[in-house]
Amino acid sequence: MASQKFDQIDLQILGELQKNGRMTNVELAQMVGLTAPPCLRRVRALEESGVIRSYHADLDAAKLGYGITVFAMVSLRSQAESDLQAFEDYVGGLPEVRECYMLNGEIDFLLKVVARDLQSFQSFLTAHLTSAPNVTSVKTSLTIRTAKQLAGIPVEP
Length: 157
Description:
There is one protein chain. A 4-stranded antiparallel beta sheet has the order 2-3-1-4. The relative contact order is 0.16. The chain has helices spanning 8-19, 25-32, 36-48, 81-92, 118-129; strands at 68-76, 97-102, 109-115, 135-142. The chain is of the alpha+beta class.
């Protein structure tokens, strides 16, 4: 899929909204050197094209009781497309799984999982991951600290 062409102002809009999606259209327009109506038209066009996918709040997991983050490396018995899709659908229904990536190589999927504590993660692991259909192995790594966590992508006008 080819990337779309964006001008300098589109890239500025994307960069500013990625930093602060709650700013008003008037504030955004001032930051990118436009008046409010054309700025709003550009934002709507970026939303309609799917470049801007959503707006959300960045929540502090620990303050909400999710004290640990674990990365789980999952290997499946079969890599047939239907089995890969079935696993993706399965983990899509598990709220503790915050991210899921299909990988190339020994490991089929990398999952980012949050849990309240080690005991609840252990319960989740045995009840939902290791016992999932087509799963042959699950290797886990508990995070110690987060050194960098940036939402989005680099946007440079």
